[in-house]
Amino acid sequence: MNNQATQHTKVALVFGGSRGIGAAAARRLGKDGFSVGLTYVSRPDSAQEVVSQIIAGGGQAFAVRADSADADAIRAAVDSVVAHFGRLDVVVVNAGVLRLGRVDAFTLEALDEVLNVNVRGVYVAIQAAVPHMAEGGRVITIGSNSAVRPLTPIGSVYGMSKAAVAALVKGLALDLAPRGIRVNNIQPGPIETDMTIDQIEHIKPMVPLGQVGRPDDVAELVSYLSGAASGYMTGSSLTIDGGMAL
């Protein structure tokens, strides 16, 4: 079997694509006709399930292990996808870590972990991907509504990391505009995933719309930002949180 994408098939790479928002984004991009590479860290079974779902829908996909705290692993993942499919058109940088704590209890080790994955890892992923992109390429980061407004007294470091991503996107949009590459950021609020399922009833009253989002809600925005309809957008941050950060 030839694993190369056909000449006219676009290719997307989703960092952190085995669960939650990343998995939904990978599946949606597969449905949109992209060949999809996705990364995982500790759940190869989940990653393979997403791959199987995309293939069952008539698409092409494969998974590669890459820790987004490891710059060499990030670069290797990009190279692997390009070698596998022959091109790269869209990169979705979804991998991230959530660590919470008040300033007097938040360790430097935890600070370094958050910054390494949520900021440095995002930068390295984009830096590694864009040399392979042609005009019309798309870079999409998954930030957080905590970049807009602090939502909890124990989330200062996480919010800082996501605010850094939003600022980075603006600068990179200017950097890459001469090459016709669009760079945009999605800022979700609470999303129902396996990590938040036990907190849903506690979170709902905090959301003006009275509901928690689904991974597919965010995947819809990924789809939009990956397609022709968003061709005049770059440097934007789109908040999707039921009004929570208003």
UniProtKB/TrEMBL annotation:
SUPFAM superfamilies referenced in this protein's UniProt entry, alphabetically: NAD(P)-binding Rossmann-fold domains
Keywords, in A-Z order: Oxidoreductase
Domain named Ketoreductase: residues: 10-189
GO MF, one example: oxidoreductase activity
InterPro entries from the UniProt entry: KR_dom (IPR057326), NAD(P)-bd_dom_sf (IPR036291), Sc_DH/Rdtase_CS (IPR020904), SDR_fam (IPR002347)
SMART domains: PKS_KR
Superkingdom of this protein's organism: Bacteria
Similarity remark: Belongs to the short-chain dehydrogenases/reductases (SDR) family.
Protein name: SDR family oxidoreductase
Native source species: Dyella telluris
